[in-house]
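Re: that chain you flagged

S.,

Sorry for the slow reply, it's been a week of failed gels. I finally had a moment to sit down with the sequence you sent. For the record, here it is as I used it:
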Amino acid sequence: MNALSVRALRKSYGALEVVSGVDLSVAPGECFGLLGPNGAGKTTTLKLCLGLIEPDGGEIELLGEPVPQRAREARVRVGVVPQFDNLDPDFTVEENLVVYGRYFGITPRDIAARTPALLEFAGLAGRGDSKIMTLSGGMKRRLTLARALVNDPQLVFMDEPTTGLDPQARHLIWERLRRLTQEGKTLVLTTHFMEEAERLCHRLAIMDRGRIIAEGSPRALIAEHIEPHVLEVHGPGYEAWMEHAKGFAPRVERVGDTVYCYGEDIEPLLKSISGDLSYLHRPASLEDVFLKLTGRDLRD
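Prediction finished late last night. Pasting the structure tokens below so you have them in one place:
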């Protein structure tokens, strides 16, 4: 049985359909990513799956329970890391865990027994008495993650879990999320960081304008949609060089003053670079797939 199954899911606000016939399945123990530009419908999809808003059509099954009919029963076994930290600033680190645990009917004694392991997981050992306002952004985000684990959930939803964090904090959270999947927990996350999705997700879906437009493992999506080599070139004379490159690469794009060349064999193009041109030769990435499928135009 899947941890999460979604079939033909739809949701509209007025004349705008923000979720348009979405089908998803997430296996137990899997880290599943939902990627998409701003306004693609990712957060709305998560809220629908949690039973926080009513769908206009379709079926949702969360941990074997129909949603929204039995969303409350399903959420007892679910953890949620919201897009923005909503910790209570009036409470200490430990008190935030206690108060949140009471929503699940967990006794203070049981929460106290779980607290040391949760604080260690969050890299906050010894900070149980600290006020929230004294924590850095990374500490708050890790505490929000630890709080989502108070009820020992089978599945954890995370909406952009590392937005706004520095690289050190982001890498620490990545390590913690890998640990969760190794322990058999199921993760569903939205993210704008393609590197994050490549590192963490077993499978992912790319969503745009309310629809799923691609789905698979990061490696499979890269192989399916993008040539293996990418050459980025910029500098004086790039326009003339771009016309030359079109005869050697199957796909050449210009974005601002940078030329992107995609191909199986980039060596002939590398040899043609001269003068003041600068370049970067790299393997294709999930970000290339994302930009090809959703476009490079700003959405907000």
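What I noticed first: The chain is about 35% helix and 30% strand.

Talk soon,
D.
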